[in-house]
Specification:
Length: 233
């Protein structure tokens, strides 16, 4: 079974300027994901999609198989990610004259994952014969206990209710934060489904310390702190 790994990294960034190639402990951020994909040892090819030549140059230096130049209409602040991944996959398949049955997308801003996480997500997808697998971490807040909304009357209510209210968060149904770290699809599910949520979508649970997605300067600082402790620097 042929597997393709994609990493989609736009040049613009609202929260952290140039974050995809910003140095994190001396290494461009995107390179962590490239190296993890290689360490997983399960992919026939690795592709990076970007609208930015600097990002593509860094990816090339890191040994990526395919550099996919993203069209401008897929590189806007409001551009959804699914069409970007589809464009990358279809372009690689045309260039390689090859169909990839399993597609895995790694978020370039999630450097704390392990290569083992990637391998286990793919095993879950293929062994369970499902359309796709997403990743997440146990949520700190619960919509059944301490996550609230302001309703149409302007008053506050719990986001979700249960027939009998719970007195402790631990007694409420387990909820998870999507960490955007790893997405895995069957080929046709990726190309045909309009959403990441299908009838048989499964969740691979990662611990909080491997689930931080860098979206702000404070996120970047925190990840750098964790990596420094992890590496005993």
């Amino acid at each position: 079974m042929k597997r393709l790994c994609t990493i989609c990294a736009r040049g613009g960034s609202e929260g952290v300027k140039g974050k995809n190639i910003r140095l994190l402990l001396g290494k461009p951020l995107i390179v962590y994901s490239i190296e993890q994909a290689k360490q997983a040892g399960i992919f026939a090819a690795l592709a990076v999609s970007s609208d930015n030549e600097e990002i593509l140059a860094v990816a090339q230096s890191a040994g990526v198989d395919y550099l996919i130049r993203r069209p401008a209409e897929l590189a806007q602040n409001i551009s959804p990610k699914l069409p970007v991944i589809r464009h990358c996959v279809q372009t690689v398949e045309q260039l390689a004259n090859q169909r990839y049955e399993t597609i895995v997308d790694l978020d370039a801003t999630s450097p704390l994952r392990d290569a083992e996480d990637i391998v286990k997500v793919v095993a879950m997808l293929e062994n369970k014969h499902v359309a796709n697998v997403i990743t997440g971490a146990p949520a700190r807040r619960s919509p059944y206990f301490n996550l609230v909304e302001v309703n149409a009357r302007g008053t506050v209510q719990l986001s979700k209710s249960l027939p009998v209210a719970v007195a402790r968060r631990q007694d409420s149904p387990q909820c998870y934060d999507m960490n955007a770290s790893i997405y895995a699809w069957r080929h046709d599910a990726l190309l045909e489904s309009p959403t990441v949520f299908n009838d048989d979508t499964l969740l691979y649970v990662m611990p909080e310390e491997r689930s931080i997605d860098i979206d702000s300067e404070s996120d970047f600082d925190f990840v750098e702190y964790i990596m420094t402790k992890r590496n005993n620097i």
